[in-house]
Amino acid sequence: MTNPLSAETIESVLIQYKTPAHIYIGYSGGVDSHVLLHLCASSNSLKGKITAVYVHHGLQADASLWAEHCQKTAENLQVNFIELRVDATALSGESPEEAARNARYTALKSLLNADEMLLVGQHRDDQLETVLLQLFRGSGLRGLSGMPESTFFGKGLMLRPLLNVAKCDINQYAEDHELQWVEDPSNQQNDYDRNYLRNKVVPLLKERWVACDRTVARSARHCAEAQVVVSAVADELFYPVFSKSSKTLCISQLQAHKSPRQQLIIRHWFQSLGLRMPAQAFVERIQTEVIAAREDSDPILIGQGCFIRRYRDKLYCLRQSEQETPEDINWSAEQSFVKFATHRKLSYAPASDGILYELWQKAKVTVKFRSGGEKIYLPNRKEQHSLKNLFQEAGIPSWERQLTPLIYLNNKLAAVGDLWISAEFYSAKPNGCVRLIIQNEE
Questions:
Q1: CATH code at 109?
Q2: What pLDDT, on the 0 to 100 scale, is given for residue 93?
Q3: Which of 101, 144, 383, 405 is most buried, by CB atoms within 10 Å?
């Protein structure tokens, strides 16, 4: 039987997309990525556009030898080659597989420009494993859709041109062309879920259902098509409830929907925030413990690296890493800004009213955070105000108050974040003042 794999296989997939200026190929040295690289290098239309990329995780003793093998193979195929070194140390809550994948994808994303592609060698058996893993985790439609053939990746696009190709065809192609590849010994370690499926479960399934890779891939496509419809409905439900400025959900509007639609909106919310999709049990706890709580209560639900809280009529999702109270900072005159919390910075800009620039330059500037009992006189107001009352009037949640920087000039409270300036330090002088700015860094 003729092997269906050829350079035309890749070209027939690529023709569906805008012609890329350059193509990067994720090349581990294994058989799948080697076959993908060989196919691309065999295409006349891709000559001069290909760079093979080896990601060195530093997890295997032979990783450097594999890098040398990959570079030599790329040279023999007359394609460009680069090696990327990453730190794949697992963070708290990360599996080794997840840590390696995250490190690899972060490095690869940095390569791509808007008109470029990354090609990876995942195939139909990989899709089968992915869908089975998602099924065993109790995933919904999105998870059961498996891996898409294409997805936005960094500034460019990631493409899986072999996703509808059987593993046996890839192996046969490698043998027919006498390719030399490397074998990662960790692929035989069955303590990893995917390896256990690949080495133990899938062979048994194929004994009974020979074409299960094809049929499960077809089911994944059905799920993906259904997910498109569900996502369109979710968009319609989500945006009237969502505040783009505060990234919160309006609780009263959310409660106007029945439970299944509430859950759909909440999942869409997590997706919009770039967070991992929440488990069903966690979504239900958001509904019962936070949304359904009394308006004057302050419930806190912790999970999935987040705090879920409510304030007045808003539902907040706060990253745990961003809720730690920062330490005091000395702000020298040479610094145009200071970082005071995760992904936050405090800077100043010229203004016609605010704190006099010459005073700012000469003063000892210190950034502190609330300890309680702070008071301030505001311009055009007679009484002194407690920060607690000002925050309440402004509708600022309690946790944001703890993260709001207090700016002291010569040990006197001069400003509260970018919200208020003390009457003692407030001035008006065309282009002679500064105003403080708080920015969230992406």
A1: 3.40.50.620
A2: 64
A3: 405
